[in-house]
Amino acid sequence: MTTDWLIACLMGLGKLFLHPLLYVSIAYCLFIGYLRVKRERHDFNTKIYSFSMELRSMLPQGLIGGLILSFLTLATGLAIPLAAMSIMAVVTVLAMLSMKKRFVSPVYTMGLTFFILFFLYDRDIELTLFQDALNQLDRSVYPTLVILMGLLLIAEGFLIVANGSKKVSPHLEVSKRGQPIGVYVSQRVWLIPMFVMIPGGQLPAPFEWYPVFTIGDMSLSPIVLPILIGFKQKVHGTLPELAIKAQGKKVGALAIITVVLAILGREILHHSQKAMDQKLPFYFSKSKLGVQILGVIPQSPADKMGLQKGEVISKINGVVVREEEELYRALQINRAHCKLEVIDNNEQIRFVQRALFDGEHYELGLLFVDDQLKESGQVG
Length: 380
Description:
Elements: H1 2-15, H2 20-44, H3 53-56, H4 59-76, H5 82-97, H6 106-120, H7 131-135, H8 141-164, E1 169-174, E2 180-199, E3 213-215, E4 218-235, H9 240-279, E5 291-292, E6 295-296, H10 301-304, E7 312-316, E8 319-320, H11 324-331, E9 337-343, E10 349-355, E11 366-369, E12 377-379
Antiparallel strand pairs: 1-2, 2-4, 3-4, 5-7, 6-11, 7-8, 7-9, 9-10, 11-12
């Protein structure tokens, strides 16, 4: 198990170099470096720092943050749906195209992803490229995104404090009174390659070989997600080192508040849903209309007939059934073929029938609620 995880992580790290966002971010850093050098030459007739300065600080600092965040997400099993990852990548590219470095921040990229998913969830909107991924979404993605946003904001705060005030670029401006003044500009783009878990089975066809691990009743796959964090701050009222480090600490404080609120909100949702469910009557219990299906065993005759949990079998081979024993006896009327009258979950009557073959699952492959012990299942 440990070896499989290590191999998966190493393969995922290697595939980081195939991710288009890596090369987009490299081009982006070189471009903003070019603009900075152009401005420095305009103001001082010389360049102060190399145009590759932003590129050199992009990955080394982000690797440390990526390792820490990867450990946290893998240890906690925090799963990010593929739809969220795809939309976040698109939002990040659009934020980069705006040329506003501060928009390339988790609070914007993940915040917009949150609202886009909220808008798209459970709506009849056809998106060819993302439709399969969107179909696998559930509401648990919302607190997960907020928690991840909080963790990335903590990383952003640390990066600003540790690296944001280094090699800041001086700049000349004209004040409102027409006086020349000096300001300092810090602009950075950090790439954080972090491992996140995506629910198993959501990977597209080219990644079907990717390893899937089971934690409890969940199947998860670790995959590398490159995340960009942009930062820009202009300082004219104090020393740039003091102002930038103070800003980084405020971002970190905001992140801690975000994570705490997200965790509390997730717990509130859990307990409120549990309380609501406890107030409802038992859905799976004895029915006066027939025998209610508690579950369907995969690949069984019942599964191949399209029977669903919650449906009620009212007749088998023309015989009315109200108890499991009656159902068993009705099945014996014709061992090679069965015809069922079923009341579906919309309270509509439908008929299903199928030939039964030797070698198939014993009987139909249905689970029922036992009359004497509601929590135990029997196979019919």
